[in-house]
Amino acid sequence: MRALALDAPVGARAVSDAKLEWLPGIIVVGAVCFNAGLAFVNGNVKELTPAPVVACEIMFVGAAHLVALRNFKPQMTPWYALLGLFAAFAVVRSLSSQTFDVKYLRDVMIIPTFVVLGMTFDARRLSRVVVAIQIVMLVFLVLEALDTQVYADLFKIMSYYINTRGYNADDFWNKSSTLFVSATRPDDRFFILGDLHRLSSIFLEPVSLGNYCMVIVAYLCACYRELGTGTRWFLIVTTAMATIGCDGRLAMASTPLMVVCCALAPRLPRYSALIYIPGVTALAFVLVHFGHFEPGGDDFKGRIAHTVYLLTNYGMPEFLGLSDEFMSKAVDSGIAYLITTQSIFVVVAIWATIVMAASEDRPDKTRFTHAVCIYIALNMMVSFALLTIKTAALLWFIYGSLQSRRAADGDGLAKLRRAGRRLGAPARIGRADELPIRAGSGSWA
Predict the structure, then answer these.
(1) What angle is formed at CA 400 by the lines to CA 265 and CA 430, rounded to 5 degrees?
(2) Cβ distance 54 to 17 under 8 Å?
(3) For 171, which DSSP code?
């Protein structure tokens, strides 16, 4: 009886620890979906202000760091050092401008925040988190496509962005639609689907849905071999549906490049992913010069030319991140925006940390690092939407979770196999990441 009494708390604690192991995944699902939830509240319960949006982001970021610090490991050190650099530069910038804009700090701190959160999560369970988000995305994608009015009444997106993001009614050029301003284009869709607008699903605007599709493509490229056949095809088919539905031109153009580079990545030299941003930026200058692209058009050529125009006209204050002269124009260029708000030195530090702090002792890690770098390099030429928590949280969570994996120890596994054969156990012992998951075996135990 005494033994039973002693065993009960241990069993209860094991169950509790097993539940806590899912907490990082729950946090990232919440970070991806909370804007849709707030839009529903704004449109159907009570009109909101920017404060609840800020409060939710603080809550998710704070929860992520509580989990990460509770499970701190040396692997997180470069990312907390990067976070310290962000904070230090924010102080310098605020002293220079005599104002403090927390948004600029928030834009970049999402990166290390969700990397360290991902490092606390067992990568063997990562597919369940990705599939769960994909199912939610698919449900609302289909609803939006089949009954746009119900979707519009559910989220009242125009009202949400006016109330919480500082938009004006005049910013929404299509007065017959209450969807996001870019849900309809003055020109035709790239993918012609009758009269269907650009779909947004839970992301509320189509650009973020397109970026989300690129994140899923990166995940598929990295982890394709370890996913079950049903999971592979579900992610492939539904991601293709979402890419076409949101008219994701960048996502469609980027996918073949990501697939090819990820296939080659394990054979490429260490740190070779460093070349992507300088290479893509240089290519943009070449295309604009020889293609005679002109800034101003809301298309690929116009966005690329706009980025080149900004970088060409930046002076030392802009490159040091101490001038807001081009701020209103930089919002259509990710690299120009980051340089203006963070300085060229912080941008270089971000890029170097993403590549050089990444372990490449497993093919999945190497592939995802290359996919992430391609995603960033291409996205930064045309938009700064890659910084939004709706898509950035999942991207960096996957990155961190894959980085937390250990390379298979060949000598140790050989010893286990030999010992197993002596004891009459099955001859095959899998890699470390293929061993069964047991309750309480994760970092929370």
Answers:
(1) 70
(2) no
(3) G
